[in-house]
Design a protein that fits this description.
Length: about 220
């Protein structure tokens, strides 16, 4: 049963939040890294995006928290399904977010939308089952949540609207709007746990993301 729902989009510190939740005893935490390379999980989210019935208990079996895409895109049904769960909304300056996303997560859908790679790589990402399944899932979810533009204006408009929807849709007593640069204190206070005697975790910077992404293109997993 989920205790924490992360509603922030990728490149807002979602992997740092994942590591923090695990350290605080709210793990395992479901993150995009738990999806990539697992075709049955691609199918879960394609079903969600297409409005098919989904057994949320099956999707999150073994997990206590969730953060990042694609789960964060469905914060509303998850909040309704798990009424006692708290919502942590990671966010950052929209311009900073766009620059980070442009160099990392936006490269994934763009590989199949414009000629940014040579024919061998384009063939790999469309024919190999791991990248193909990933792109199918991201396309289905992206269309469902209205995230179909990756230019600066369109992407930032979507990001701002997403933030506003969360702030308007989550009761104040269940919501923490959180910048991971704030560290442990606001997160621990919100979750009602002591601050650990350890540095706040940082993860998935742009260089780390690119290294893992190349592994995915070769048919591996994100971890």
């Amino acid at each position: 049963m989920l205790e924490v729902i992360g509603s922030g989009h990728g490149r807002t510190g979602t992997d740092s939040l994942r590591r923090a939740l695990d350290l605080l005893g709210f793990g395992p935490t479901y993150h995009m890294k738990e999806v990539i390379g697992r075709p049955e999980r691609y199918r879960h989210w394609i079903d969600v995006a297409r409005g098919r019935p989904v057994d949320w208990e099956e999707v999150f079996r073994g997990y206590r928290s969730t953060t990042d895409f694609p789960a964060g895109a469905y914060w509303r049904p998850l909040m309704e399904r798990y009424p006692d769960a708290k919502v942590v909304h990671t966010t950052r300056d929209p311009e900073e977010w766009y620059e980070s996303a442009r160099k990392t997560i936006f490269r994934i859908p763009l590989l199949t939308r414009r000629p940014v790679a040579g024919p061998p790589l384009r063939a790999l990402v469309t024919l190999h089952p791991t990248p193909r399944g990933l792109f199918s899932m991201m396309d289905a979810v992206g269309r469902d949540i209205g995230m179909t533009r990756f230019d600066r204006e369109g992407a930032i408009a979507w990001f701002v609207a997403h933030n506003e929807a969360v702030l308007a849709g989550v009761p104040a007593d269940r919501l923490l709007v959180y910048d991971v640069r704030q560290g442990w204190e606001p997160l621990c206070a919100f979750l009602g746990v002591p601050v650990p005697d350890a540095p706040f975790p940082r993860g998935n910077d742009a260089r780390e993301f690119r290294r893992r992404f190349l592994r995915v293109l070769a048919g591996g997993r994100m971890r």
